[in-house]
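Hi R.,

Here are the chain sequences for the assembly we discussed:
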Amino acid sequence: MKPITLIGLLFVAGGALSAQSAAPKSGSSMDCRACHTAATPTKANPSLVACPRLKIKGYHAIDEAPATMSLGAEGAKYGPVNFAHRAHAHMAETGKGCVGCHHYDQARPIQKCKNCHAVSRKREDLGKPDLKAAMHRQCLDCHRDWNPTGSCASCHQVKDAVAKAAAKKSTTVAAPQKIIYETGSKEGKTVTFFHADHTGRFALACAECHQQESCRGCHDRKRIGANNAVLTRHTTAGITEEQAHARCATCHAKDECSVCHKGMSPKSIGFDHGRRTGFALNRFHAPLDCKQCHKSAGGFTRVNADCESCHKGWQAKFDHAKTGLALDEQHKDLDCTSCHEDKTFHAKPVCKSCHDDKAWPAQRPGKAVGRETAKK
Amino acid sequence: MKSQNRRSFLKASTAIAAAAGLTPATANAGPKNILSPNRMGVLVDTTVCIGCRNCEWACKTAHGLDTPPLETYEDKTPFDQMRRPDTTALTVVNRYENPENPELPTTVKVQCMHCDHPACVSACIVGAISKQADGAVIWDTDKCIGCRYCMVACPFQIPAFEYNKAIGPRIMKCDFCTERRGEGKLPACVESCPVEALTFGPREDLVRIAKDRVRHAPERYVDHIYGEYEVGGTSWCYLAGTEFDKLQFPKLGVNPAPGVSESIQHGIFAYFVPPVSLYALLGAVMWTSRQRGDEEEEHS
Amino acid sequence: MSGYMRSQPVTTRKFLTPGVMVLLLLAANGLFWLGGRFLFGIGAVTHLNNQYPWGIWIGIDVAAGVALAAGGFTTAALGHVMHREQYHAVVRPALLTALLGYTMVAVGVSIDIGRYYYIWHPLIMWNGSSALFEVGICVMIYMTVLYIEFLPVVTERFIGRVNLPGPLARFNELIDKLLRLLDRTLDRTMFVFIIAGVVLSTLHQSSLGTLMVIAGPKMHPLWQTPISPLLFLLSAVSVGFPMVIFESLLASRSFGLKPEMHILGRMGRMVAPLLGIYLAFKLGDLFIRETFVYLKTVTTASVMYIIELLFGVIVPMRMFMSPTVQKSPPLLFTAATLVVGGVLLNRLDTFVVAYTPPYTYGPYFPSFGEISVTVGFISILVLLYRAAVIIFPVISLPDRRLSPQSKYSVRG
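And here is the predicted structure of the full complex:
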């Protein structure tokens, strides 16, 4: 986590805690037991109850959250902010989740900010920021992080908007094409991570890899631009081998080293199609190029496992002898599914739908020819 | 004639001594310097400040100074130079390198600190400057003679002077928005701050809040509230994430700035005793030496 | 001996000489720039700014001006309070120098303050804790005292000689009577003013030293000391006689008179112990506060401090101790000039060089206009002195008349 985010988090926590310590004076009804289980909590052991900030991932599905909100009142110069709440909620999945903003929100439904943060700056309890400050700090915690010189107009509607409309531009995520990791490995030193393939072709959601990260990790002003398509990272220093592998291991745990570490002697092709997709490739399918089946542009979408989806009208011209068994006259004209139920051709054919006394493979519906398959 | 001289000498001496005896009462006449326990202050948290310079704009607007439109304040090039408050801007924000994150520099608002024991109040020749019960150090332009001794005295180098005015040049500095506060409003800068890096309130509360913040986020702050004790305490206090001298805060002791000067001054004038004693001594010397001279004259 | 000498107007020389022409030119240049200050503000003429609020107008015109006018009170103390008749010959020139010096200080302050038309404010608006207030009030009172002390010179000049032109002639008798009344009154009360003058001088000479104490850490440690007022007083006391020597020798030369070496030499002998006391305190301060560490590196401050102490105090102190110097006009003049220069430099150092504020956009150096005004003021001062000694009986000259008017001869 970026230090600034951590600092911001702690600051807000500090502010809230200081508000508590001020409780007797300001006459707040907040009870210490609301957060602490012990009678005398210490800094080392605060005995906090399961804090929503740490535990709650979401109060409800993101898509139930309001899509947009209008924040703030009309100011002298700036109008309210049209806040794309749902988009931010989705982004927050890679960060702190809902609690990143809805801190200390133990009660449901979600509290309004102004329940705690005073609307007026002139107030009794100065321990926590007022509403305007709280909002600004909350937004700027990230917004300023990746764009330190960002103007007010990048969020606020400006009154004399015509000239300023150009100033409002959506921030782009500077996702790289690929990331080349310079690793400490002796053999296969570089690992190239094809980021674009993972987000595009495999259609992985950001949050599946990115968790508890700062906004700036993705919204990096400096990285926006074509020349950032290829990033180079050095992973030799500061992290253990386990840490270095952790992120990829969620999917690639069982893969050969050479899948990622180019140059290591390959022991297998890597991707276990059967385990991952439930459609094991047989000896005919295995040597094929992925694209021969996964034809749709962009990603590896699921291909219909029905043979017909690829091999159109194959049954009509199928020569069963090629499987090593030339069907006899009685069986030659039967429908495939009469014996091969559910079109699972690698499974044992079923005989008992017609024959009570016969069973595969003791009795065969024809004679073996040429090469006999050992399997099946 | 000589004897008459001596008699009148004595008479005049008594008259002067009597006159001197009266003066202590009037010598106490001086500017107001109230240190109310309820005095207000502002806590500036430089770790929260985003360097938007809205406070500069608000200050100029509130004080009727020539103010460029707010959009122009989004230009960050003024940060390239260190700036000081002057007669055209009573507060300015300066930028300093942040070793933690070069992308997010530290920005520090500068204005009058409104000392609890202000050097300017002590120094002002006509007592035009005063410390108010509400914490503000303000001045009466109609009294000011433009001697600029307040500028010499100020440890924070704050008062500015209208050097290019031939008639009626004014001393100018932050007045803690005395006028606005009289109307029940907040100081302009405090009101305009989008992130409330400036917290306005009773100084006592602010110091407590500042301590809370440092205690709860020790990694965010250096454990020092600038202005809590500096020069005897200031109404405006600062929190920072780096050492204050790196942010160009002057390194000052805890003694009030006018302390040494005032004790010398009051020592020399301790109820006019030293001057009157000197006068008496010189009178005695003069009398005896003149007598001796006369005798010599008579002998010759 | 003094019976043969008496103060009288100098009539041996004309007012206008080539030297005077140069001074007039410098004065005109100063006044030109001064006009700029009044038309366009202080900033238009000076290099002063918010970082350096005080420059040479305060450092030289005011602080050094007050110090160098110290001859007035030291000779008054010597001649009148201690009643050393033999010094009376230099009392009046010293008084005149002090009078003109303080007048320049007053004018110098007036032009330096932004609202010169409010110069009277300190009279009714008091701030007892302000060192500047004390200096201001003392200087105002002392200047009045100086003018009163000078009045007998005026009455002496005009009693029995009031001769107004044209229709005003009918007031001649009345004015003469008033002058005589004034003269009699002053005769009885003069000692009050003389003592007051000495007391006021010690007060504000020392308070001038307090002025910069409040600047605290903005001052270079070499000059920032709590005993600054004492050092100022001691240096003022020790510069008093050298200033009288300096100015007396200069005047003698200018007017072609015989230098009054019998008085000046004896005065010179008193300078060394005074300088010695000053030096002792200055060095004591240097070592007790351990500020000598700042002398180890070569900076403007350390160089100025060394010059100030070496050529302004130590060298002239040694010179004044020598009988050869006490008898030789050129050597005595050199020694006196060194002390005068040393004190002037000390004031300049304290008010300008030592003032090093934490925030600056660049160092301060006086502008041409500032220097012009200061030089112009000094020129005017010299011209006024010259005019005054021609008009009034100030300088002691050998008396050619048979019956000296003893009543007026020995009073200053």
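Chains A and C do not touch (no CB pair under 8 Å). The two ends of chain A are 53 Å apart (CA to CA).

Let me know if anything looks off.

Best,
T.
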